[in-house]
Amino acid sequence: MYNGMLHAHSGLRWLVLIFLLLAVIKSFAGWFGKKDFNKSDNLIALLLLSFTHTQMIVGIILYFISSKVVSMGDAMKDSVLRFWAMEHGVTMLIAITLITIGRVKSKKAETSELKFKKGAIFYTIALVLILWAGLIKPSLLGAGLF
Ligand code: HEM
Ligand code: HEM
Questions:
Q1: Pocket test for ligand 2, best of 1, 2, 6, 9 (most atoms within 8 A of CB)
Q2: pTM to 2 decimal places
Q3: CB 100 near ligand 2, within 6 Å
């Protein structure tokens, strides 16, 4: 159970990152290129949300079964334990919330320009957070790529 969840979580990260990167690029290209928000833009946003929300559920399950997540009292003294018990989950939940707000605001916006602009702003902040707490820092701590 644990190993399967860990690999699912580690692998899903790439789908989240690929679709987030695509969404950022398409949002800026659409915003500054004054394009129409079309079907492919909508599909990328939907797939991004599906992968991101699934990743959240797997992450929350991992939080309860991982041996790397120890009690807060023990975790606070050690920077590696603190990362897995606190920083990773909190940063990711913020990033996931930003992606969801970005999508909801983009969907509600009246014009293509505003749809792209909302996505560009929220997705870019989320991308920075996920690159740090979901790619760079885990790799520095010895996490595998899959
Ligand atoms: C505990 C689990 C989950 C929570 C709390 C959650 C929460 C949310 C929220 C708040 C929204 C925004 C709703 C809105 O448009 O106003 C949303 C949208 C969405 N969620 Fe989730 N979600 C969860 C699980 C999932 C899963 C498992 C999937 C897919 C596999 C998923 C796919 C989507 C999609 C595609 C949308 C976008 C709908 C749209 O924009 O038309 N979610 N979710
Ligand atoms: C976009 C969102 C996320 C990404 C990209 C991401 C990415 C990762 C990566 C790369 C690892 C290391 C996997 C390995 O060691 O092979 C990891 C581990 C972990 N993640 Fe996430 N994560 C996300 C969201 C979350 C959330 C929302 C939670 C919980 C609230 C969470 C909880 C955990 C836990 C507990 C581990 C440690 C598992 C272990 O090594 O025992 N993650 N995550």
A1: 9
A2: 0.95
A3: no
